[in-house]
Amino acid sequence: MKPIVVVTGKNGQLGWELQQLASSFQDRYEFVFTDRTMLDLAAPESIAPFFEKIRPQFFINCAAYTAVDKAEVEKELALTINATSVGEIASCCARFQTKLITISTDYVFDGQGTAPYSTTTPTHPVNYYGNTKAIGEQKALENNPNTVIIRTSWVYSTHGNNFVKTMLRLMKERPEIKVVADQQGCPTYAADLAEAIMQIISAAQKGNNAVGIFHYSNTGATTWFDFASTIKEFAGLTCSVLPIPTEAFPTPAKRPAYSVLDLQSITTVFGVELKEWKRSLKNCMEQLHA
Ligand SMILES: NC(=O)c1ccc[n+]([C@@H]2O[C@H](COP(=O)([O-])OP(=O)(O)OC[C@H]3O[C@@H](n4cnc5c(N)ncnc54)[C@H](OP(=O)(O)O)[C@@H]3O)[C@@H](O)[C@H]2O)c1
């Protein structure tokens, strides 16, 4: 019997990319992709019955409450989905000897750093979403000895809503746009992250059962302004892109000023190949036009 791999959040950016990739792995794994109608993380009590029924060998948790600004208001819901349910998933994983891979965020850091954040740097979120994800991380590690947490940043894909698609739309609609130029981070093409996740699962199948916190993004730090300017260049658009400071674009949730992740451990432990952010952006934009 093939090992069962559950993937939550099948309609999100990462879940969708994992669905695209699954066809190349169908001979080795049986995939169960879930949306909120099959497994609702706002209802933690529904998680144990789901495990009883499916009994997965691998559980990839891509579902999350990701509306960073709305989380400042919908606190209880964000906490339930990102922390309470992640803890419950981890407890069930421990009971059913399931390997858990759950996704976290650069927003667990406060952004005061000036060098890439190591996986061992203490967390100190500056917004409520980051806070819920940091609590979720703790519970995932405490409740299940076989947990891999992958923190990622600035995720985009051909699917769903993201910075790349928003910029392309605005640049076509307007003669000029203003983009924040004093927040530094690194974009991540969700298709690349999906590949990294499958590599970690393959490694576990071959006996590499490394656990703990890992970081994954594309390589090379940038700013939202530079990111937008590169999107414009690759799309061949003429809209003016102007740099602005964070203060000129107030949002309900504070953002970390610097959130570049140190990617060393995922490459040394799992041999995950890293991809340069502009190359991945180009790939994604080619897919969008295809
Ligand atoms: N996007 C980023 O820039 C970013 C950055 C750093 C880390 N991350 C992390 O990366 C992971 C994947 O993010 P993403 O960009 O793929 O997110 P996304 O596109 O916003 O997708 C999130 C998914 O979670 C599902 N979901 C929300 N509430 C749920 C519930 N109550 N029960 C079950 N499913 C629920 C959503 O379902 P619906 O489709 O029904 O809404 C959606 O499929 C998340 O853990 C996120 O925190 C994301």
In brief, what are we looking at here?
The protein is of the alpha/beta class. Helix content is 40%, strand content 17%.
Question: Could you describe the 3D structure shown?
Answer:
The protein has helices at 13-22, 47-54, 75-96, 128-143, 163-173, 190-205, 224-235, 264-270, 277-289, and strands spanning 4-8, 30-33, 58-61, 99-105, 147-152, 155-156, 176-180, 184-185, 188-189, 212-215, 222-223, 240-244. The chain is an alpha/beta fold. It has one domain (4-158, 187-218, 260-275): Rossmann fold. The strands form 4 sheets. The protein has a 6-stranded parallel beta sheet with strand order 2-1-3-4-5-10, with helices on both faces. It has a two-stranded parallel ribbon with strand order 6-9. Helix 1 links the parallel strand 1 and strand 2 (30-33). The structure holds NADP nicotinamide-adenine-dinucleotide phosphate (NAP). NADP nicotinamide-adenine-dinucleotide phosphate is lined by residues 8-9, 11-15, 35-36, 40-42, 62-66, 81, 103, 105-106, 152-155, 160.
